[in-house]
Amino acid sequence: MERRNRPSPAYGPVRLDRIAEPLLDPVVARAGFSSTQVIAAWPEIVGPELAARSRPEKLRWPRRQAEGEEATAEGATLVVRAEGFEALEIQHMSSNIAARINAIFGWRAVTRVSIRQGPVESRSGTAAANPGTLPSALPDAENAAADERLATVEDHDLRSALARLGARVSAATDAD
User: Fold this and answer.
1) pLDDT (tens digit, 9 = 90+) per residue, 58-74?
2) pLDDT of 91 over the 90 cut
3) Any bridge partners for residue 112, and if so which?
4) Residue 174: pLDDT above 70?
5) Which domain holds residue 37?
6) This prediction's pTM
7) How far is residue 128 from each of residues 58, 121, 137, 168, measured CA to CA in Å?
């Protein structure tokens, strides 16, 4: 009887990244990333505080050269979504961000950083529990009054932006 060489199943604990990487690769490939490395290393690339308010969305590669056209050495453009003034900070850090990502890949993969300003989902997957209400950082009475004033704003995006702005202004004045 001939015995076939079959891989034996792994017993015991298995690192989660070894299970998740093959499952996530097709998803991140659609966004232009070759792997989850940039997404997973984002807090180390930009720092934990900035990483909480921004995220890499996709790598936009230059179009392929047709036959007879001169090849360019241009790398990809990293598209980053950032909230508020974090967009300005990312713009300021763009050359450092590109250099850190290129160090991960080991070659000059990213040559530009493009920023899209807008709300960023938290690590738990939601932008805000209820975008029409202010965070619980406000006292209940102030939160109720703010919700009442915001209820008259018909545009959902505007109401959400005003709620975030009010929460940040209130947090900034409380910190002073």
Assistant:
1) 888 887 766 666 656 68
2) yes
3) 77
4) no
5) 16-63+75-117
6) 0.53
7) 22, 8, 13, 14
The one-letter amino acid at 112: R
Residue 128 has a pLDDT of 40
- Asked if residue 107 and residue 24 are part of one domain, the reply reads yes
Q: Please give the C-alpha separations between residue 155 and each of 43, 53, 66, 159, 168, in angstroms, as whole numbers.
A: 33, 23, 46, 6, 20
Report yes or no on 163 lying in a domain.
yes
Question: DSSP 3-state assignment of 101?
Answer: helix
For residue 58, count other CB atoms closer than 10 A to its CB: 18
- The rounded mean pLDDT for the chain is 75
**Structure tokens given for 161:** 């932006």
C-alpha 71: how far from chain center = 31
Order across the sheet with 110-117: list the strands.
54-60, 76-82, 110-117
| End-to-end C-alpha distance for the chain, whole angstroms | 80
**Per-position DSSP letters for 112-152, written without gaps between them:** EEEEEES----TTS-S-S-TTS--TTS-HHHHHHHHHHHTT
